[in-house]
Design brief:
Blueprint: H1 3-13, E1 17-21, H2 22-35, E2 42-47, H3 54-63, E3 66-69, H4 72-80, E4 88-90, H5 97-105, E5 109-112, H6 115-124, E6 130-135, E7 157-158, H7 162-172, E8 176-180, H8 190-204, E9 212-214, H9 232-250, E10 255-258, H10 262-265, E11 269-280, E12 285-289, H11 298-301, E13 308-310, E14 318-324, E15 332-340, E16 347-350, E17 371-376, E18 379-384, H12 389-393
Helix pairs in contact: 2-3, 6-7, 8-9
Keywords: Amino-acid biosynthesis, Decarboxylase, Lyase, Lysine biosynthesis, Pyridoxal phosphate
Subunit structure: Homodimer.
Active site: 328
Length: 401
């Protein structure tokens, strides 16, 4: 999106503000479709946890996507957005048996990642098709918090527990219709992904009635100028060839499934905040903005880097700033970062703010969460109103003393 457009939206809707470019989301979706166009049956499930605004879900539904969900609430959001249950996969972790049964009753594809729940569910509902989430014990991802396929991860059923898994399936007579894995986010080495895929292919040979293989996602997107990213086109060529060969060996065409979240929406997102104060100390120049980790926690939580631009002075002389928030804890978005000269009242724009940004926001310090806008066909549409104090206290039960 152009700088002048973003600045105009910040002026129209106020700050802080999230803006999402619908064209970029659709471009990324089409890119993934094209990459795997030689696979006969391809299914792309958008990972709702990345950005769960219903209008964004509806946009992807129109493009033909399904949904990857991790909670019953995400399932309900998908249904509200118009997705049919058969277009939704549910991959929880550590949830109750009751929640899994509630989701199954809605007709959604269940994906189970532990032996205890698998045995309980199979004994009670052997007729309900179930996908199995395998832990391939492959370390992948850009941060320990988002690497989920290694041996110490809480996610998935260990590949070394396959004999136990098979015994449960046999004893319960349950129908296993899919095998799933997700090694982590921000994967750069596609050979690691392909190595894990071989583990999934081997696991799949133990099940004779499979309908799909789900390879998760984790494709890295660029976070700054000249940043590296996952070569999804090369991955597509190699995995397509191997997947089609496996289908021939298996005896029928299976569906190849992915669950991209960040890949689809990260680069489409922009977060804008106003500079409240420029503060010179003995060693640092701070640019303090009207936001904090209550609105964008990824830099503090994951150490992620978001490119920051002063869109009020895009051609200005660059100086070094530490961009910080207004929360009463250290909430540094960027330290000693080169940014065009900043004055109080300027609007700073954070790039790659589409994934895991608003969805991880909170009301910490009793601050309201920002508005969200979708830029679609040359117009900005408000898709979430800015919160007010009423939203913060709505569910509180106030006692009188």
């Amino acid at each position: 999106m152009e700088t002048k457009t973003l600045l105009a939206l910040a002026e129209e809707f106020g700050s802080p503000l999230y803006v999402y470019d619908a064209a970029k989301i659709l471009h990324q979706y089409a890119r993934l479709q094209k990459t795997f166009m030689k696979v006969e049956n391809l299914r792309i499930h958008y990972a709702v946890k990345a950005l769960s605004n219903i209008s964004v879900l509806k946009l992807l539904k129109k493009a033909g996507a399904g949904l990857d969900t991790v909670s019953i609430e995400e399932v309900q959001l998908g249904l509200l957005a118009g997705f049919s249950p058969d277009k939704i996969i549910y991959t929880p972790n550590g949830v109750s048996m009751e929640e899994i049964e509630q989701v199954a009753a809605l007709g959604v594809q269940i994906n189970i990642d532990n032996l205890s729940i698998l045995e309980q569910f199979g004994a009670k509902h052997p007729e309900t098709p179930v996908c199995i989430r395998i832990n391939p014990h492959v370390m992948a991802g850009g941060n320990s918090n988002i690497s989920v396929g290694h041996i110490d991860s809480k996610f998935g059923i260990s590949i070394h527990q396959m004999p136990h898994l098979l015994r449960i399936a046999q004893n319960t007579g349950m129908h296993i219709n899919g095998i799933h894995m997700h090694t982590g986010s921000d994967i750069l080495d596609i050979e690691v992904f392909l190595y894990a895929a071989e583990i999934l292919f081997e696991a799949a040979t133990h099940f004779k009635e499979l309908e799909f293989l789900d390879f998760g996602s984790g494709f890295k997107v660029p976070y700054k100028k000249d940043d590296i990213e996952t070569d999804v086109e090369e991955l597509g060529r190699k995995l397509t060839k191997r997947f089609n060969a496996f289908c021939s060996e298996y005896g029928r065409n299976l569906t190849l499934a992915f669950e991209p979240g960040k890949f689809l929406v990260s680069e489409a997102g922009y977060f804008m905040a106003k500079v409240n104060v420029v503060k010179q100390t003995t060693s640092t120049v701070f640019a303090g903005i009207d936001s904090g980790f209550n609105h964008l926690i990824r830099p503090m939580f994951y150490g992620s880097e978001h490119y920051i631009e002063n869109i009020s002075n895009p051609g200005g002389k660059e100086r070094f700033y530490s961009v910080v928030g207004y929360i009463c804890e250290t909430d540094t978005f960027a330290g000693n970062r080169r940014i065009a000269e900043i004055k109080e009242g300027d609007i700073l724009c954070f790039r790659n703010a589409g994934a895991y940004c608003f969805s991880m926001s909170s009301n910490y310090n009793s601050r309201v969460r920002p508005a969200e806008v979708l830029w679609h066909n040359g117009k900005g549409y408000l898709i979430r109103q800015r919160e007010t104090l009423d939203d913060i206290i709505r569910n509180q039960v106030i006692l009188e003393f």
